[in-house]
Structure formats: C-alpha cells, structure tokens
Amino acid sequence: MEMMFQDDPYARSCAAVVADAAPEGVRLDRTVFYPAGGGQPGDSGVLRIDGGGAIEIIDTRKGAEPGDILHIPAPGADLPTAGAEVIAEIDWERRHRLMRIHTCLHLLSAVVPYPVTGGQVGDGKGRLDFDIPEAILDKQRITDELNRLIAENHPVRRRWISDAELAAQPELVKTMSVKPPSGQGRVRLIEIDGVDLQPCGGTHVASTGEIGAVEVRKIEKKGRQNRRVVVAFVEA
C-alpha cells in the first residue's frame, strides 16, 4: 500500500486499483486517505469508478497488518470488484481543517510545556490533556501565544529518523499514553521550525500561518493532575 498522505498531505486524489472489497472496507494499492490514528480522525470522501459511478467513503481505518488501510463504504453501497480502477478523492475541505487543527495542537504542546496525557483532533477544534498538578493555566495567555506563533508563519517540515535514533532521544516523545510506532525501521518527525519537534504520523499544513486565528475555548480539570485545554478556530 502506497500511503501518499505521508509525503504529500495536500494530495486530494489519486488513481488506484482495488485490491479487494468487502462491507467492512475497500483496500487499494495506493491512497490519499488518512486512516484514523494518533488522535486524528480518518478521512472521508469518494471512490470514483472508472466508467461511471461513485462509492461514498464515510471513514478510513487501519487494518490488522502494518500498512493495511480500510476505506469504509457507506452502508448498502455497491462494492467495486478486485482489479477495478478508481479515483480515490478525499473530502478536502474537512481534511484541511483537520490538518490546521492538528498543527495547532503541536503548537499548544510547545506553549504548555508539560507531559501530554491525551488528545483529539476535531473538525474545527481540538484538545490536549496535560499532566499538571495545579490549575496554573491562563486561557488568554495561551491564546495570545498560539496566535503569535501562527502569525510568525513558521515552516512545518517532515523528516524521518531510525528507531534507534528515536530510542536515543526519548525527550522527543511528549505523549505519555501513546507511543510512536516502532519496529518498522524508521519514525516520521514533524518539525515546526524553531518551535517544536516530535514524532507524528498525521497530516499537517506547510506553515503555521495557514492555521488561521484560534482561541482557547476552555480549560477543564479532568483529574487530580490532569488539565484539558480545548482550542478552536475563531471563524467557527
């Protein structure tokens, strides 16, 4: 499976061949669809069949084996046959909002320099949970810092390191509950120039200015040492 989203998150569609299809998912030889993982939802969109017709894809998930991706068809959809040629096309507007929020959460992890206990990328908003013993977070200060980093338009880059290199730099891993995948020889890093560097398999925008204005909607206590910070687009 060629996972085009890893190197080109701006690819909106691609030609592909159906490997197999069942109600639980359609497998392709290559895809632009991101499968749910790392707190980011799976993509939705359509598979356009060569010769006419389209299959609505309501979700994308990882299969049982590494690199196995299931494109989940809408209930009752007519399934393509193995070997059929299709155009895989994501819902770009939704994907782009998820990319913007995901990159914003990386900024949030830099602005609030505490271990991350959980997180979720949403359509128009997202959140991170932090291991903080006291209620010391200020909504306005965090909002101002996020928007400053966004306005500075820092480049966002992708690069790979080996499993051994990551093991030698454990400080790169900010999440306490979810560890980056290893055992495949290499791990992808997302670097926000001069601001943040951490392992991540999700999709991101090319520069922080693309995120747009955001605000901290709320800060919640979710346990004795757990504080949840929710951010959202101002436009939403």
Features:
alpha+beta, six-stranded antiparallel beta sheet, 3 helices, 16% helix, Threonyl-tRNA Synthetase, Chain A, domain 2, 15 strands, globular, single chain, 236 residues, four-stranded antiparallel beta sheet, Elongation Factor Tu (Ef-tu), domain 3
Write up this protein.
- This protein is of the alpha+beta class.
- It has 2 domains: 2-90, Elongation Factor Tu (Ef-tu), domain 3, CATH 2.40.30.130; 95-233, 2-Layer Sandwich (Threonyl-tRNA Synthetase, Chain A, domain 2).
- The chain has helices at 92-111, 139-151, 163-167, and strands at 2-3, 13-22, 25-28, 30-31, 45-49, 54-62, 69-73, 85-90, 116-121, 125-131, 156-162, 186-192, 196-199, 214-221, 226-233.
- Strands 3-2-8-5-6-7 form a 6-stranded antiparallel beta sheet, with no helix packed on it. A 4-stranded antiparallel beta sheet has the order 9-10-15-14, with helices on one face. The protein has a 3-stranded antiparallel beta sheet with strand order 11-12-13.
- The protein starts with a strand and ends with a strand.
- Count of individual beta strands: 15
Tell me the CATH architecture of the largest domain: 2-Layer Sandwich
| Weakly predicted, low-confidence segments | none
Q: Just give the CATH class of the largest domain.
A: Alpha Beta
Total domain units: 2
What value does the average pLDDT take?
93
Shape call: globular
Tell me the β content: 35-45%
Strand order of the largest sheet: 3-2-8-5-6-7
Question: What is the CATH homology-level superfamily of the largest domain?
Answer: Threonyl-trna Synthetase, Chain A, domain 2
Largest sheet: 6 strands, antiparallel
Give the topology string: H per helix, E per strand. EEEEEEEEHEEHEHEEEE
Query: How many angstroms separate the termini?
Result: 36 Å
- Put simply, the count of helices is 3
Structural class comes to: alpha+beta
